[in-house]
Amino acid sequence: MENLINKKILLVICGGIAAYKSLELIRIFKKNKCQVKTILTRGALEFITPLSVSSLSNEKVYTNLFDFKNEAEMDHISLSRWADLVLFAPVTANKIAQLSNGLAEDLATTIALASDKDIFLVPAMNVRMWENTITKTNIKKLVNSNYKIIGPDIGEMACGEYGSGKFSDPVKISNVLNDYFKSIQGNKKFKALVTAGPTREYIDPVRFITNRSSGKQGYAIAKELQKNGFQTTLISGPTNLVSPDGLKLVNVNSANEMYEKTIEHLPVDVAIFAAAVADFKMKEISNFKIKKENLSNLEIEKTKDILGHTSKHNSIRPKLVIGFAAETNNLNENSRKKLIEKNCDWVVANNVSNKEIGFDSDYNEIKIFNKNNQNIDNISFNTKEMIAKRLVEKISNELKANG
Ligand code: CTP
Q1: 254 CB under 6 A from ligand 1?
Q2: 326 Cβ below 6 A of ligand 1
Q3: Residue 200, exposed/middle/buried by CB under 10 A (0-12, 13-18, 19+)?
Q4: 311 in the same domain as 389
Q5: Which residue is closest in CA terms to ligand 1's atom 8?
Q6: Is 133 found in the same domain as 66?
Q7: Is 159 part of the annotated catalytic residue set?
């Protein structure tokens, strides 16, 4: 399990009879040179002691959200930032219900809510509790919010009943995490570039032409790429968004600036053109505020097509070029046409006629077409983060498959 070496795992142990099995998990992690910080929930303290956990992990064990001594050393936010991933093992039906409702009532749930890392859950409970519709609905909600579930296994339980709900084998859990880190490691050699947000085409010092793009989808994609190991550059038009950690952010205003900065940052392995670039700009930008009587005389010209130029350029063309098509009607036809005209490998088509999705919304609904005219993915109404996740997974698989 060489990909576990030097990884930082934040392990949350919840209250259940399987809590003792997490001690074996810590032993495996330590054997593979992971750093493990542990949180014990109130329930877990009934089953195992902080002393046994800290003896195995060689680290401080955290128990209480309002433990000021611990908070002074490492508060709950830094604890979640410290980790490479968060692992709840075991997680009970009660904790699953709290997580799926976004509660932040103890250190464990607060960290889950505050974390920007991937969160894995290893459920362990009685078969009826696991198969209960409410638990199933809660799990579905968590999976939709990007939680990853390991197990549960099928077998005889501590209560004597048989079925699904057993804590997964610690070796299996470690292997899943090892594969997770391996996939990220495999992406580290790839460079990615994302354009995002609107552009501003100035008319004079006080006026400009722009559009409704918030940049949220492009930022979510860049963030996900970075999180998955890609060396990521985000070329962004003006937005109100916070720069994602770790990536290279290049702020631009106009389409021409976006074009220049994009070319400057090529070559890359994959380029995703999520920006809503203005199609026209002023022939000349006035240095003085234009009087309104003269505004009707403005002359405009086309902006440079950043995507088109990149994808048709032989020497700097990325291996994978992905364009976006925001359409209000004839989504499939218009998007495929754009794919061909702009020489893309894939086009992400989104329907912006519905107010709840697309521009300025936190949600989106997309279809992906490839240059062989195949519809290679459809993602129905979901958060822009989840859409970014699916897209990045596809990009990673594609690049790995093609060397
Ligand atoms: N794009 C670009 N540079 C431009 C214009 C667009 O890189 N100057 C990219 C966008 O980032 C997006 C795709 O091209 O990936 C959108 O194509 P485009 O034909 O510009 O879309 P619309 O402007 O919506 O076109 P139309 O009005 O024809 O629907």
Answers
A1: no
A2: yes
A3: buried
A4: yes
A5: 305
A6: yes
A7: yes
Maximum Cα interatomic distance, the chain, rounded to a whole number of Å: 86
Mutate which of 194, 330, 342, 344 for ligand 1? The one with the most ligand atoms within 8 Å of its CB, which is 342
Is the distance from CB of 208 to CB of 200 less than 8 angstroms?
yes
Same domain assignment for residues 172 and 32:
yes
- Phi first, then psi: what are they for 382, rounded to 5°? -160, 170
Mind listing the pLDDT tens digit for each residue in 22-63?
A: 999 999 999 999 999 999 999 999 999 999 999 999 999 998
Residue 62's domain spans which residues?
2-185
| One domain for residues 42 and 123 | yes
Question: How would you write 233-281 as a 3-class SS string?
Answer: EEEECCCCCCCCCCCEEEECCCHHHHHHHHHHCCCCCEEEECCECCCEE
pLDDT tens string 9-25: 999 999 999 999 999 99
pLDDT of residue 69: 57
Instruction: Decide which of 185, 203, 235 is a domain's last residue.
Output: 185
Number of domains in the chain: 2
Domain CATH number, residue 45: 3.40.50.1950
Looking up tokens 């990149």 gives: 310
For the record, the structure tokens of 252 come out as: 């631009």
Pairing of strands 153-156, 162-166: antiparallel
